[in-house]
Amino acid sequence: MKAISKYLLAAVLSLCLITGCDEGFDDINTNKVDPTSLAPSLILNKAIISTTYLDGVSTLGMLTYNFGIVQQIITPYGSSLSGGNYNQFNNANTPLVWVNFYRNVIKQVVAVTDQTKDDPMQANIYHAARIWKAYAFMILTDTYGDIPYFEAGQGYISEVIRPKYDPQEAIYKDILKELDEASGALDAAQPAVTTDILYGGNVAKWKKLGYSLMLRAAMRLTKVDQNTAKTYVTKAVAGGLFESNADNSIIRHTAIYNNYIANHLAAREKTNFYLAAPFVNYLKENNDPRLAVMAVRYVGAKGGPEQVAARASSDPKLQIGMPMGYNDVTINTVLAQNGVASLWDFTQVNLTTVLKLDAPEFHITYAQNQLLLAEAAVRGWVSGTAATYFANGVRAHLEQMALYDPSAAIKEDVIQAYLKAHPLDASKALDQINTQYWVASFLDGNELFANFRRSGFPALKKNPYPGSEIKEDFIRRMPYPDSEIIVNLQNVNDANTRQGPNDLNTRVWWDKK
Length: 513
Hints:
Elements: H1 2-19, H2 25-28, H3 40-51, H4 56-69, E1 73-74, H5 96-116, H6 123-144, E2 147-148, H7 155-158, E3 165-166, H8 168-185, H9 203-219, H10 226-239, E4 249-251, H11 260-266, E5 274-275, H12 277-285, H13 290-294, E6 295-298, E7 312-313, H14 335-338, E8 348-349, E9 361-364, H15 366-378, H16 386-400, H17 412-421, H18 429-440, H19 445-455, H20 482-487, H21 489-499
Antiparallel strand pairs: 1-5, 2-3, 4-9, 6-7, 6-8
Helix pairs in contact: 3-5, 3-6, 4-5, 4-19, 5-6, 6-8, 6-9, 8-9, 8-10, 9-10, 9-15, 15-16, 15-18, 16-18, 18-19
Protein name: SusD/RagB family nutrient-binding outer membrane lipoprotein
Organism: Dyadobacter fanqingshengii
Signal peptide: 1-24
């Protein structure tokens, strides 16, 4: 039988050589299941998804450093969870944003801009990718300082495998230029890219996103270059910012495609992370209705197995934040004075509202925009009153609670009462504005860490943990990964010479005392 099959195949091939019978072979030999390429719009979607806390890489970095530094979420545990809770260097977690962004987000978004830059029919994809690239690079440079920027993501395209590190000042100026050009060039007359994961191809919303990100980037420069900051704040306002919560940049989740922070805290880390006392106390002292949405306490729990629904309470009066400066052993010395039965009895993030499995993740919001405009108004950079922008921003975040779950919605009379009780006080405007920004950016670790360093608010006290490894009161940046030191040493050394030692103490360019 094998011999017959062999001779039959030989006969067929001979006939094809004589007659040229190649018709249909291309179709037969084309794999219609595994794609050999993807549409740039789909690659951009992948970059957007990878920017959020999609996996354990980014999530653990936020939980161990950013949330702890700004004293919103804390863990008493060390080892693999040490970081901002102890003010210590954890070589396993400081590189996580770098690893995820350069290996995924930057590679993908640079590929999109390279594929679409010369194609007029994909101009909107090109400009949307430029906007998202600016957002991704802001997170990277805010986290590490000087980074590969102009040569980044060129490994597959131009074989640049040891990219040079660019000064953060140059990076920010190019980010602002890119946002200005890309936002202005988006064209609503082109066919909508309906596969767009953020806005379904709505160009008007992408424009608002670009200008809203420009406002954020411009305000980063308030300590180092106020002329440039004012110039681009003015451009952002003129271009058109978010007008309501309907414009927010959001990644939506489902029961199948989960919010990863929620998944992380509902599973392996459920008993490890708690709301920090400074955050809980601020909300309690100001009778903030968001506390009842964000928080839950398993009253009287003496261990993880006792953190059950029957003990769960979101009553603001019962919430007790975990104090800063303790580990899982020393925390036992302050249980009685805090009125809790064990460390498992402290308040946690509510996994049925803001961190339920299908809770959305926010990148840039109308609330944040309005609060930044309030600060810009205080500085005399925009028209309108700071008090109005401030009230709009606080209201927007109070209303944003309803986007997590209908049960989390705050009633209108409660919103009005809170706004009436907390008007902007001109004598402490920057403190009030940026402390509200701290609340409004809850669960956005990158932005929390950045704006806290930029503004100096809220006026948090130093984490008193006795094993602190930092010289200043707070961590200022993440060090470069060991992998960079191994494969790109000269460029790392150049950055360190320019910026300062590769440790937790060195300030990035815009973070001046």
